[in-house]
Structure formats: C-alpha cells, structure tokens
Specification:
With about 120 residues, the protein is mainly alpha-helical. It is about 75% helix and about 5% strand. The longest helix has about 40 residues.
Length: about 120
C-alpha cells in the first residue's frame, strides 16, 4: 500500500505540472482569439459591447477553424488533466488517512508537536 501512496504522490506532482502547462496553452489560444477579435472590431457597436459580439464573430468565422479546434483541444486537455490530478490527490489523502504512510507531524511556534498521522513502521 505504501508503494501505491508514493506513486499517487508522484502522479499528483506530475499532474499538477501538466495541468499548469495546459492552462497556459488554453490561456494563449483564448488570448489569441481575443486579440484577433479586438483587431477586427467594427465600429461603435463592438465598442459598446466590449467586443463581445466580435469575439463570437471571429470564433465562428470559417478561417478560424484551426484556432477554434485548438481552443477546444486545450480546454479538454486542461480539464482532463486537472480532474485526474484532483482524483489522484483525493485518493492519496484517503489512503494515507487509512494507512498512515506519509508522516504528518506539525510543530507549533511554542514547540508542541502535533501528530496528525504518525507513520507506523
């Protein structure tokens, strides 16, 4: 069981890094579409709505199919990697609270030691 807990710890750390990577890719593809819609804003109507309608006009334009697919792909991978990381973290906490493999000991400022889950060896 200890091996599974350590593997889950590695999965959580690696999954967190992967989720950060896909978040930045999602942010880049979304900001690309926002900048494109701001560049193609047409008149006072787009200025009054803050570019809301021009964003969907740019998003639905036939020449932006690749950008739309990239946005959807990045969103799916970000949501998937985030969900897998959270599930692994939840399973890690549940298993560690049952088997007490990872040592969870805290020291207060006055020197008292609080053992939440002392490792059994």
């Amino acid at each position: 069981m200890a091996t599974l807990i350590y593997v889950l710890l590695v999965v959580v750390i690696f999954g967190f890094l992967v989720a950060i990577f896909w978040f930045f890719k999602l942010f880049a593809s979304l900001s690309n579409l926002i900048f494109t819609s701001q560049a193609t804003a047409r008149g006072a109507w787009d200025f009054a709505t803050g570019g809301f309608f021009s964003f969907f006009r740019v998003l639905n334009h036939s020449r932006n199919t690749d950008a739309r697919k990239a946005l959807c792909r990045n969103a799916i991978f970000f949501i998937g990697s985030f969900a897998i990381t959270l599930c692994a973290a939840w399973l890690l906490v549940e298993l560690n609270s049952s088997y007490c493999v990872l040592n969870m000991v805290g020291t207060a400022s006055d020197g008292t030691i609080t053992s939440v889950c002392a490792a059994s060896r």
